TrEMBL record:
The chain crosses the membrane at residues 80-108, 141-161, 168-190. Keywords: Membrane, Transmembrane, Transmembrane helix. It is found in: Membrane. Coiled coil: none annotated. This is YIP1 family protein. It comes from Natronoglomus mannanivorans. Pfam families: Yip1. The lineage of its organism: Archaea, Methanobacteriati, Methanobacteriota, Stenosarchaea group, Halobacteria. InterPro entries: Yip1_dom. It is a multi-pass membrane protein.
Length: 199
């Protein structure tokens, strides 16, 4: 999934080095990244990016958090392979496209001249960059990852769809809560810190 025969015009480079560069750029220069790194019809690198982020986060969580996943009557290696494959290769891509569809519906009444669905998919995928560390069982770090990811999502929507902060927040609030509050367990981390009740 990270190697392609040719790049679409204006699209992102493929390969592990390009993924690492995209991760760094999103974290350090997000305005520039969303302005020049998101292209129409070029969502495959974004999907790959999300899969890698989820793989890092869930592998870390599986290793560091006891009973993170239900036990299976097989060897620990096979159990890890099953659960991580299920989450990384099935759940994460499905969740991305479901959330992108929801995000598109929320953009319809808030942003008149908006970009295409593929750009929305890319914004959602790349905004998860901080969450490579979300599997570390440190509530403060998990809150930081989720909060920065939500901010990147709103910023990306604002830049890619050329809208205001208010409209981007109105359109992106629910998807941000689903992806970063529940998907990457930001709300649970806030609960662990005693800042919110059960959500």
């Amino acid at each position: 999934m990270t190697t392609w025969i040719e790049n679409p015009e204006g699209g992102r480079d493929r390969g592990p080095r390009a993924l690492a560069r995209a991760w760094f750029e999103v974290l350090v220069r997000p305005r520039r990244f969303f302005r020049v790194g998101v292209s129409p019809g070029d969502q495959a690198p974004g999907l790959t990016f999300l899969v890698v982020v989820v793989c890092c986060a869930e592998t870390t969580r599986y290793v560091l958090v006891p009973d993170a996943y239900p036990a299976l009557p097989v060897s620990p290696t096979l159990a890890a392979a099953f659960w991580l494959s299920l989450v990384v290769l099935l759940v994460a891509p499905l969740a991305l496209h479901f959330t992108a569809a929801l995000q598109t519906l929320l953009l319809v009444p808030t942003v008149r001249d908006r970009a295409g669905i593929s750009q929305t998919v890319q914004v959602l995928a790349y905004s998860t960059a901080p969450c490579v560390f979300a599997g570390v069982p440190v509530p403060e770090l998990r809150v930081l990852c989720a909060g920065y990811g939500a901010l990147l999502l709103i910023l990306g929507l604002r830049i890619v769809h050329e809208t205001s902060w208010i409209r981007a927040m109105l359109a992106g609030g629910l998807p941000a809560a689903l992806v970063f509050g529940y998907g990457f367990r930001g709300f649970a981390a806030l609960g662990d810190l005693g800042l919110v009740g059960p959500l």
